[in-house]
Amino acid sequence: MTAQRRRRASITVDTEAPYRDGELGAYDYARVLEEFGARGTFFIADDIARANPKLVEDLAAAGHEIASHGTEHPYISKRPQQRPPLLPGIGEAELEDQLGTAYQRLSALAGEPRGFRAMCFETDVSVMRVVAKHFKYDSSLTAGQAAKFKLPPGLVELPVSTFLGGGLRVGTPLFLGPGSMLPLSRLSRATRDDPIVIYGHSFDTIRCTQRLYTSRFKRFWYFERCGPDRIDVIRRIVRGLIESGIMLQTAAVLAETEAPLRGAVSERNGQQGQRSRQADQQAAGEDQDM
Ligand SMILES: [Zn+2]
Asked: Global pTM?
């Protein structure tokens, strides 16, 4: 037996703007990580990369990983009924076109992106097939979902961590809600996943000043809790992980060195993948992710 290796974790930030300036909180995440000499992974929606290329360049210049969060996130304030455009069912050719555009733009700004995360964690087998054409790893599932998912050959899945005893992902809802009260230094004990993949959103630290036409739950328990005071919650999470002896790395590094779930292997499971939202709703009973 070799000496026990250190547990690893990645802080991943979905960079999108459901309301004005929501993407700018990516800078807050970046600064907190840099305070600790760590780097994170920013899954950036293509509409953000198009509107604010400097954000992508700044994050990359600081050493953070740039990855793709698909094309255009639905803007809740403007188009309340619109579903995310990257959804199963729109056809692989159109999907490929959309993802190709996103991939090219990020490549031009920051070098070839390796990772992809589906908007609202919504994916399926056909989406994954297209993802595999451009990207090396996907991070749109939980470990429980990935085990049942038929990943395309060559694609690595880096699952988002969930809390023990439930399918809830370790991410933004925690930072906005009970996060400030939980003993965050124990976060590493709240999940069994190794590596630990935590997800946040750029808008976590940006106060919402717009009227949002969304569900009551999302307004009161999600967007209205965002703001600069969350920066300290993020700082405590990062400090807690480091003080627990956990090594922080980018998702790309974890996917290359750690990810246990590869397309070629999990194909043996033989089960068709399902939309992750369905599986997650069963597990969590909530629809609270972006
Ligand atoms: Zn998102």
From this structure: 0.86
